[in-house]
Amino acid sequence: MKILLTNDDGVHAEGLAVLRKIAAKLSDDVWVCAPDTEQSAASRGVSLHNPVRLRKLEDRVFSVSGTPTDSVILAMKDLMPDSPPDLLLSGVNRGQNMAEDVTFSGTVAGALQGMQMGIPSIALSLARGFQGASSLPWDTAEAHGPDVVRKLLDAGWPKAVVPNVNFPDTPVDGVKGIQITRQGHRDFQMSGVDKRDHPRGGHYFWLTYGAKKSNPPSGTDLRAIYDGYISVTPLHTDLTHFEALDDMSRKFGD
Length: 254
What we know:
By secondary structure, the protein is of the alpha/beta class. The protein has six helices and eleven strands. The chain has helices spanning 14-24, 68-79, 106-116, 138-155, 221-226, 242-252; strands at residues 2-6, 29-35, 54-58, 61-64, 87-94, 121-126, 162-167, 178-180, 191-197, 203-209, 230-235. It has a nine-stranded mixed sheet with strand order 3-4-2-1-5-6-7-11-8. It has a two-stranded antiparallel sheet with strand order 9-10. Helix 2 (68-79) runs parallel beside helix 3 (106-116). The chain starts with a strand and ends with a helix.
């Protein structure tokens, strides 16, 4: 099995090193094509207005001066145009990608681009900050990752779907199992701004993204992670709200 890896934290990120270990337990034909710098929250951005550079770092490991989506496109079109991968893994992200996060996640975007180009693709993220501000148990993702991927491959999933995997912020032996979940919704606003005075006059801003626990219902990605389970959510790119579609069609339709 030929596996392509990408991420949004950058080619030198610890999470990508963990993903390489996960992939090595599945195959000896593993390729990496990832951004040369951090691209968190890049969503599905594509560098249409600037040139993009592809650089070889080592055998089958490449960096891209662009987004996760750029990286997948270049890997597919330039590195392996005649021998595409059998599987794409994106991550392991430094922090959870759940609920509203998935719409701007570069990790999820990399997997969505692989799916769009006909490759079975999985996004993987590790929740952090639940055991303390600095908690980030990479060994949990490394230990459970291969089994989760194998189970997904054995079960299969529709071509237009990306399984979004989130590992809980718990020790390796604290993981309670795997739950198949739906995308949750937080009951508070995560985004904010930090307004500061510029020393030469005026102001500048840091955009912030706060984090606290909500009270999500059972069956959501949020609840699974809060409860110590690995969450697997099947995502797709169709954002149509079908209830609203039916309702608006009745009101506006002839």
